[in-house]
Amino acid sequence: MLRSKDFTSLWGYLVNSFLIITLCLMFSFNVSAADRMVLCYENQDYLPYLKSLPVSDKRAEWIDAETGVLPDLVKKAADDLDIDVVFVNYPWLRCIDQLKHGKVDGVFPAIWTKARDSWGVFPKRDGIIYSPYRLWHVRYLIYTQVHSRLAWNGESFSGVFSGIASPMGYITTQKLEKLGVLPAKNFLPEQGFKLAALGRIDGYVVEESVGTHLLEKLEIEREMKVLPTPFLMADWYLPLSSQWVQKHPGLAENFWQAIEKHRLQDGELLYHFYRTIKLP
Questions:
Q1: Number of domains into which the chain is organized
Q2: b (16+ CB within 10 A) / e for 25-61
Q3: Side-chain half-sphere exposure of 18, counting CA atoms within 13 A
Q4: Could you report the per-residue pLDDT of 202-261, keeping only the tens digit for each?
Q5: Which of 52, 190, 196, 238 has CA 20 to 30 A from 91's CA?
């Protein structure tokens, strides 16, 4: 027969066990709540950095395949935190709209500007953008027809007749518009490069490695030249939705930190791989 003291001890043991199990379940729930991220990038082939995904039922999701330097870095960072990543592809402006309304958890790659704080949470320290957490540092160059008179001195253009294009929604496009050289109709990179090679537009602005890939893919290296002065130099980031950051306080910092780790650790190897491999 249990004595009162034994009963009290047993009861205390059961209560403590119940509390421990409850806390474990709560902790498990909080971890599992962040075990999946939906990230959006543009539905274009921007190798070596990005490759558009196979489309199924009007919605593309990541499959186990080569998708470019940046998705690979993101996957590695997410794996460190036991987060499963689902990639979706949309036009860039739709990716931004999806992020703003919390329908995706992040977008990439994005250049930070103060105005973009209205739709995404960028990595910052003391209110200042924190460049070590970048995905990549890039240069945007101006590609033009080999016989073109187009020139850029770092501040203004000369020899502009039909305009200089860049992808819609990009910082480069906004800058071209402010300079008054954006054509009435804009074009995606492949079409823009073809038109520039034919002299139908004065030039096209795109990231340097993407430009090299397009020249090779379209086999127009002899028809095009690159102006020597970069149009823009910037860092690419992966901004997150304010909704995701609020649900998982502290995890955003860990995620960006893991991105920095794998950029430094694996970035050069991934870049070389995607610059040399021939993807379908």
A1: 2
A2: eeeeeeeeebeebbbbbbbbbbbbbbbbbeeeeeebe
A3: 6
A4: 999 999 999 999 999 999 999 999 999 999 999 999 999 999 999 998 899 999 999 999
A5: 196
Q: Residue 92 is part of which domain span?
A: 34-135+237-276
Closest CA to 96 of 70, 119, 71, 123: 119
Q: How far is Cα 151 from Cα 269, in angstroms, rounded to an integer?
A: 35
| Residues 173 and 223 occupy one common structural domain | yes
For the chain, residues with pLDDT lower than 50 are: 1-2, 4-8, 10-11, 13-15, 17-33, 57-64
d(CA 53, CA 59): 9
The pair of structure tokens assigned to 137 is 């540092």
Apex 166 CA angle, 70 and 241, nearest 5 = 45
Element (H, E) at 211: helix 208-218
Query: Torsion angle of alpha carbons 236, 242, 248, 249, nearest 10°?
Result: 90
- Residue 201 is assigned to a structural domain of this protein: yes
